[in-house]
Amino acid sequence: MKLCRYNDNRLGIVEGNEVIDVTPALDLIPPMRYPAPMGDQLIANLAAVRAKAGGLKAGGQRLPLDAVKFLPPVGNPTKIVNAPINYDDHIAESKADAGIAHGRTNITHISDWGLFLKANSALIGFGDEVKLRFPDRRNDHELELAVIIGKTCHKATQADALSYVAGYSMGLDMTIRGKQQTCWRKSVDTYAVCGPWMVTADELPDPTALDLVLKVNGEVRQNSNTKFLVYNIPRLIEYATEMYTLHPGDIIFSGTPAGVGPVVPGDVMSCYIQGIGEREMRVAKEYA
Ligand code: MN
Known about the structure:
This protein is 16% helix and 32% strand. It contains 7 helices and 20 strands. The longest helix is centred in the first third of the chain and has 11 residues, at 46-56. It binds manganese (II) ion. Manganese (II) ion binds next to loops.
């Protein structure tokens, strides 16, 4: 099932070129009192919501994809976990390009870096626009397979890691290049794009061999496959949970292949990941 959030917090099933409104399925999410439980409550209650959504589909209003404003598939992740230097060809380009490396000499292996977090406040869906900051600095696109965790998960193993996954989505890890910490340069508002929908894990059983392509204004910039990940998805979940407890709705951006490069206001980034789909993401016409 392809599940999306859109417009004013509505819930939809994506089929072909349409979104089918199944918003009443959200009524199954139990009411909350302060403090809200850890984890996104749509994802924490996904099995029940999916079952109800399936029943609502036949009577749901159908809208063309282009008529809705896509929100991120998860409204309240507790964190957005990111993998740095996780494709060999991106490691090579990072060593070769001073505009990426900014003097770093330790561009070696993900095991030397660990993972980093992007601020949740940076998260947007494909119905929004990336609003660039700092015209004097390089603002890059990084297309990545995004994993949405479905169940609380601590000290996972590679063997059981995929059993914790709710689904997959596309991630754009927008980045300001520079010497500062990654969590700082990559957490600008709108710099964590996720969506346009979540493909549930039962429809995408193997995330370890998916093509991904990013074009800017029609020109191919990134073209790779998740089989080239240094740490693949099961290993990334194992690695993340050595340090973090992952909660339902937490998002893992799995890393980007070679071809990262700058965008400027007005650019259109076309994102494609096999099994998920294709969608354009616009860069706002003005700097924020
Ligand atoms: Mn990245």
